UniProtKB/TrEMBL annotation:
The keyword Metal-binding does not apply. GO terms for cellular component: axoneme. Its main location: cytoplasm. Keywords: Cell projection, Cilium, Cytoplasm, Cytoskeleton, Flagellum. The gene is MAATS1_0. Residues 4-156 form the CFAP91 domain. InterPro entries: CFAP91, CFAP91_dom. Belongs to the CFAP91 family. The keyword Cytoplasm applies. It comes from Eudyptula minor. This is Cilia- and flagella-associated protein 91. It is found in: Cytoplasm, Cytoskeleton, Cilium axoneme. The lineage of its organism: Eukaryota, Metazoa, Chordata, Craniata, Vertebrata.
């Protein structure tokens, strides 16, 4: 009642064809025996080359049937001439096959050479791209360094231009305090000022917290309710009800006390 579906056809799951045993009657040569050398995967199923080979075998058998008998010298000469002609035809046919095979090999070699040349071109292009990337990175680093050096030199020239005559300038306090980027608000570490130094001067110092006398004076100023704690003992809860029964919570406390003991 269930159906299944696979990813393969029946033809893909088919095994090699079975060739049963056979018996040849005496005195008969079936034509099918000429194909005994062909097996599945090696000539079978038959293609164009196998069909041409079968046709040539048939033509050769028909030619052999037309050969004259060797009764006299004339028949022998005629038979030898026919055999020489057939041998020339076979050599010509073999040469054609060799030429076809060489052409196929040449085409395969061309494809391999073309593929190798393509791979070499891709490799050269990748190498050139890598070199170009490296040169671009080096160029960008040089440009950044040049820009940095240019800005540094410009700052030095501007600082020198402010005091061309070499005279000492008086301090303008109003200008320093109006400009929030001045040394008053944002001192630079390159002129000898480090913001992290002297940080202890911002720590709050208190007499009552840092000295023993201050602690004693602070403790004396506190009220008695802070230093002397008064604890009120809790009143016992009634374990019985108005009618004289013991409450369930009381029984549970007794059971827990016994388990604890």
């Amino acid at each position: 009642t269930l159906s299944t579906q696979t990813d393969y056809r029946d033809g893909e799951a088919q095994t090699d064809p079975y060739s049963p045993e056979y018996v040849v009657p005496s005195g008969s040569v079936p034509e099918l025996l000429t194909l005994a050398t062909l097996t599945w995967g090696r000539g079978l199923p038959a293609g164009l080359a196998e069909v041409e080979m079968i046709e040539r075998a048939r033509e050769k058998r028909a030619w052999e049937a037309t050969l004259p008998a060797m009764d006299n010298a004339l028949q022998v000469v005629k038979r030898r001439k026919m055999m020489n002609d057939m041998e020339r035809k076979e050599w010509a046919f073999r040469e054609q096959e060799i030429e076809k095979l060489q052409e196929v090999r040449l085409e395969v070699l061309k494809k391999l050479l073309w593929r190798r040349e393509k791979n070499q071109k891709e490799l050269h292009a990748k190498r050139l791209d890598d070199h170009w990337q490296n040169y671009q990175k080096a160029k960008e680093e040089k440009v950044k360094k040049i820009q940095h050096d240019c800005a540094l030199m410009l700052r030095k020239l501007i600082a020198k231009r402010k005091n061309v005559m070499g005279k000492l300038e008086r301090r303008d306090i109003i200008k320093e305090y109006t400009d929030f980027a001045s040394q008053t608000y944002a001192p630079l570490s390159r002129i000898g000022y480090f913001p992290d130094n002297h940080s202890e001067r911002y720590v709050v110092k208190n007499f009552y917290l840092d000295t023993f006398a201050g602690l004693c004076e602070l403790e004396a100023s506190l009220p008695d309710s802070v230093t002397q704690v008064k604890i009120k003992a809790p009143k016992p809860k009634y374990t019985t009800t108005e009618t004289g029964f013991i409450k369930r919570s009381a029984r549970l406390e007794v059971d827990l006390a016994q388990v604890h003991q």
